[in-house]
Amino acid sequence: xxxxxxxxxxxxxxRDNHRSGTPAGVQALASLLMELQPSSDGPQILAADxxxxxxxxEEAYRLLLAIRxxxxxxxxxxxxxxxxxxxxxxxxxxxxxxxxxxxxxxPVPCLEEQLKDAFVVSGALMRTDSREPLWHLLYxxxxxxxxxxxxxxxxxxxxxxxxxxxxxxxxxxxxxEAWQQNYCSAARRLSKLSEKGSPILDFLLALLPFNHRxxxxxxxxxxxxxxxxxxxxxxxxxxxxxxxxxxxxxxxQYLRQRAACFAQLGLHERAISDLDKVIQxxxxxxxxxxLKIRAEDLxxxxxxxxxxxxxxxxxxxxxxxxxxxxDQTIQCVExxxxxxxxxxxxxxxxxxxxxxxxxxxxxxxIESGLSVDGENAELRRLRARVKREVAIxxxxx
Length: 397
What we know:
Elements (H helix, E strand, L loop, with lengths): L1 H19 L2 H14 L5 H12 L3 H10 L2 H10 L2 H25 L10 H13 L4 H14 L2 H12 L6 H13 L3 H12 L5 H7 L3 H20 L3 H14 L5 H13 L3 H13 L7 H20 L3 H14 L1 H10 L3 H17 L3 H14 L4 H13 L3 H4 L1
Helix pairs in contact: 1-2, 2-3, 3-4, 5-7, 6-7, 6-8, 7-8, 8-9, 8-10, 9-10, 10-11, 11-13, 11-14, 13-14, 14-15, 15-16, 16-17, 17-18, 17-19, 18-19, 18-21, 20-21, 20-22, 21-22
């Protein structure tokens, strides 16, 4: 009797779901309709919509792909504007993610089977609204992933023109030019996209084999060096972003160049971020050239830290740089903050440690400050005071 009551309560719950129009109820109703009308596409689309609302995105996506493309287009067009827009945007984003995964996990050109979903969805979206550029770009990217560069170029030019103004379309031309080994032009076109900070740049670079990416990075870095000589730091930054991302953030020289651009533009936090990666990659080699480079990296980061009002961390960098290569450090300081300015920073740090009776730390900063500006009277007076108060022979010596 209890079981019958429970069953009756479950049936009542289902009826309530259907009447209330909840996603769970709609999905249950659609499942029933799919059993009664297995040849009809309508219930499947209804079920897919309900699954999407329930957060079961993967199931919804697979169900839609199982339906004939003609039926999908017809049903999408039958929806009201807002519902149609939401469904198309969702399909596009899900397919874009799927395509990115395929490109990252498989060598380009990908196999057709790996791109089947992207071709079906992009085709359906273009037929739904041929005026939407995003659908065409998805189709072009799918062709590029398959290695169909001629077809991709033809479709791109048909939709966007022979010389598109839009940065996202220009970037696709850049990918094709990199395949044709026209690396300078490719770097310029791709840099238009990096100027906008677009996350799609990583995906487009992944459409290129390693050697093409490497050559594109070299061309971008060389072009950046040329335009920076003319003071065009924004252009140089965009080009160096292409170089850095094409090399997977692994090339220290490109990170150094980009950090210099950030610093020139006053974007010191971002300069520090790039130099953090460079300095983390310092190895244990002890050659004089290597020590000079490492000291210079520390000086560059130290300068940006000072200009970000992070003097404590900056003084650590400059002190370490002095220990690595004193002459190179002094040269970098004179070309950057200037010895007098940096000595004042060392004085503030030393006074703070002195006030806290951390005399060993104070002594270290005093000596570093006098290394960059031996004429600083305040540092000399503080040095004499610490000498009088400290009885540790190694410090006095």
